[in-house]
Design brief:
The protein is an alpha/beta fold. The protein contains eleven helices and twelve strands.
Length: about 325
Amino acid sequence: MSIWRDRSVYVTGASGLLGSWLVRHLVDAGAEVRCLIRDWVPQSILLSGELRDRVVLLRGDVRDQAAIEAHLGEYEVQTVFHLAAQTTVPVANRNPISTFSSNIEGTWSLLEACRRSPKVGQIVTASSDKAYGTAERLPYDESTPLAGEFPYDVSKSCADLVAQSYARTFEVPVCITRCGNFFGGGDLNWNRIVPGTIRSLDRGERPVVRSDGKFVRDYLYVEDGALAYMCLAEQMMARPELRGRAFNFSNETEVTVLELVALIQRLMENDLVPEVRNEVSAEIRKQTLDASRARSELGWKGCYGLEEGMRRTIEWYRRHLKEAA
């Protein structure tokens, strides 16, 4: 707690799923948090309750380097978390240029602003397991080459490499996180499998599976993700030699989409048969992460397993859907 007390922190993408939970944990730890948000999403955790009154809200686009540089200087920012991105794979397949612009240009704009802001001591930037692309050997570890093929994956591979370049060329104090699919309360993109399935079952409707249900993914509860980001930043404060390193964060539990849906059904005591549409294309079929580096070098360990995280998630959505009814 004392590490974060009165610390000036800047979070991009702060109204998103991970961003909202990260901001909450930072505020609870005593940090002075400045949140860069592009879109005003009233239903988000950040903006829908008392949390928004405990932070400074800054409207803007992560590609606006001059504005970010002004924010970092005016608020004497010490630690930056860069989460802003276009995060949806189907959207990237339909609109690749906007995804490339947000995810790649947004990253270099943020890092260039940080390079020109001498008070910034730590930057944690979000990559993804998608940055690895399709690999012959699983689970991915951090030595696996970055080889995205599809638009979203390529955007994350490129942004990841841009961050490494800034670390090595300009000694910018940046580390990179590579996580799987986040889930948890506050995700209002109902096309995603977890919130969509919970809402369908809550309504007494069959859940929809866009793929054939056999795609394997690595799922991480969002509060574990938020705490992982904070853990990495804390380690960077004491260990500047971590600059430029990448870390996988995962509970190392591989699950098919249908297995995930079955878990939600069991916890919600609902056995409606899923509607499997098998309409997905241009997506990686199997992804799993090895988090041994984070455990051994950072001392990180997740607090919630898949089932406990899902139980907490279902409880959040039940409250949210009841209040919205």
